[in-house]
Automatic annotation (TrEMBL):
InterPro entries, per database record: MUG/TDG (IPR015637), Uracil-DNA_glycosylase-like (IPR005122), Uracil-DNA_glycosylase-like_sf (IPR036895)
Name of the protein in its database record: G/U mismatch-specific DNA glycosylase
EC number(s) stated in the UniProt entry for this protein: 3.2.2.28
A Pfam family it matches: UDG
Keywords carried by this UniProt record: DNA damage, DNA repair, Glycosidase, Hydrolase
GO-annotated molecular function: pyrimidine-specific mismatch base pair DNA N-glycosylase activity; uracil DNA N-glycosylase activity
Domain of life: Bacteria
Length: 173
């Protein structure tokens, strides 16, 4: 297991070799850094969606984030710099952070890498138009998935809609 922290955020990354899937958020929220746990804001739907989609047998709390490893899942960030909103990140932030993400994925070799939101993958792949779901290409050997961001600020997806997208990935594991 890895207890590494993201260089600029202080949050632990939840990584281990050979996981089924690593969920890659755009970047840490300021509230998560303050609380010391990933996806700790009560409005964030990450933990609920993981449970409803079948990744975890029960609803985990942010304080139980390390339990994800027992279910073959991990967490990392495309960009380690925390912000109030991911909209504060620019394309160059993702491009500058891409080599660090590539190294992590090469090192831990998950079967799947699920970007939570389109922004990071669109910037890294240099593609303006990307669709949700499984992508045709791989990222350093990992199958790429684009899943909607579970942030409470993402009003484009209901809890049911989010769960359907995450369940599609879960059904392939």
């Amino acid at each position: 297991m890895n207890d590494a922290t993201s260089p600029n955020s202080g949050l632990s990354e939840i990584l281990a070799p050979g996981l089924s899937v690593v969920f890659c958020r755009l970047n840490p929220a300021l509230s998560a850094v303050r609380d010391g746990h990933n996806f700790s804001n009560p409005s964030n739907r990450f933990w609920r969606v993981l449970h409803l989609a079948g990744f975890t047998p029960r609803l985990l709390r942010a304080e139980e984030e390390r339990a994800l490893l027992h279910y073959g899942c991990g967490l990392t960030s495309a960009v380690s710099r925390p912000t109030k909103s991911a909209s504060e990140l620019k394309r160059q932030d993702y491009l500058s952070a891409a080599p660090v993400l590539e190294k992590k994925i090469q090192t831990f070799a998950p079967a799947n890498l699920a970007f939570l939101g389109k922004a990071a993958y669109a910037a890294i792949s240099l593609r303006a138009d990307v669709e949700w779901g499984r992508q045709a290409e791989e990222f350093t050997g990992a199958v790429i998935w684009l899943l909607p961001n579970p942030s409470g600020l993402n009003r484009a997806f209901s809890l049911v809609g989010l769960t359907e997208h995450y369940r599609e990935l879960r059904s392939t594991l």
